[in-house]
Amino acid sequence: MAAPPSEVLTDIVAPRSRSVLAPPLALGGAMEARWAFVRIAIVFLVARAIVLACAIGVETLAPPDAAGPGGSVRLATDRPILASLTGWDGVYYLGIAADGYQPGPVNGPYPEVVFFPLYPALIRVVAPVLGGDLALAAVVIANVAAFAALFVVYRAARSRLAPQAALLATTVVALQPGAVALSMAYSDGLFLLFAIGSMLCADRGSRTAAAILALLAGLTRPQGILLVVPLLLIYLRQDGPRPRLSWLGALAPALGIGAFGLAMWQLTGDPIAPLTAQAAWDFGGVPDIPPEPWVLAIAGIIYGGTILIALRLLVDQWGATRRGGRWGAGVPVMAWTLLNIAVIAAARRLQSLPRYLVPVTLLAEGVASGRYGRRWVTGVLGASVVAYTVLAILHFSLRLAP
Question: What is the mean pLDDT of residues 87-115?
Fold first, then answer.
């Protein structure tokens, strides 16, 4: 009998190593937490080994030119490895951590008010512990948050999947093409932690914790506002149609985003400065840096494949959600998925498509759901690892932004 898809991880490693990934006969409580922690750590270290290999290779064989359009720079430092991991948006996060927000352009034609405040604030707090090294603090925070987020992703998937399937879903999240940013000086790891953690806490009845995490998500990225809908759907499923005072916690992301918007209004005089300043990037196309044709071709293959796989998973997950009923447990997660995809389409951020799909963990759960054959699942995971590696090289060589 062929192995089920959830056992792909044990099938693709050496036979002597299969016991490392295979779950014990009975899991529960602290035993399962330890089992998951060790295996998620293995996945995390594999992903970081790929990232480090790509960074060292790029910096050794073809060091990139940090110069960007209009006199901007795309690297925050020239130190080995940290140069690769603090490029692109990391330049702005480190600038905010060092000097606070500045009105107007700060790096060539680009302003920094589009970047939300929680991540640079944490960099500033942690840096003194690391000898005042902002770049190192940024990378450490991003990776610690990413590891914690993967464990939260596992716990969320575990509410719908068996242990080994939940581990496979977590592996897909950690190694999908856009997850390269989880290792860089980006806020993606923090956002993944707060967003999925908020929905998980709400689902388990911890509404105060859910509100706090949702507030932090709103202070991390603008997509935090999308949490309002799935949180309200969770509370509606739990309480019925009569609203309760605790439902106000679902509005916490709006509070965080509103507070940041008010601060930027006072700084710039523009009440929607974080939104209008995005025009410097032309809402999706970075001006004056046309990628080389071969880069566009490779990106097209990766993005096209990502879209096709995501659409298939979305359709199948939609069917499963409908079968669960109008107020089934999968409805809030499906709403989160559809809202994120709609925002990606509306913002025309095709260049960042793989990165923006990382928080849509329902698609990764679909890979591990058991609906697909082992060969298909193995092929998707293998293609994802290859695309992850290729995008790491393109990001670190400054040929393609995350």
Answer: 93
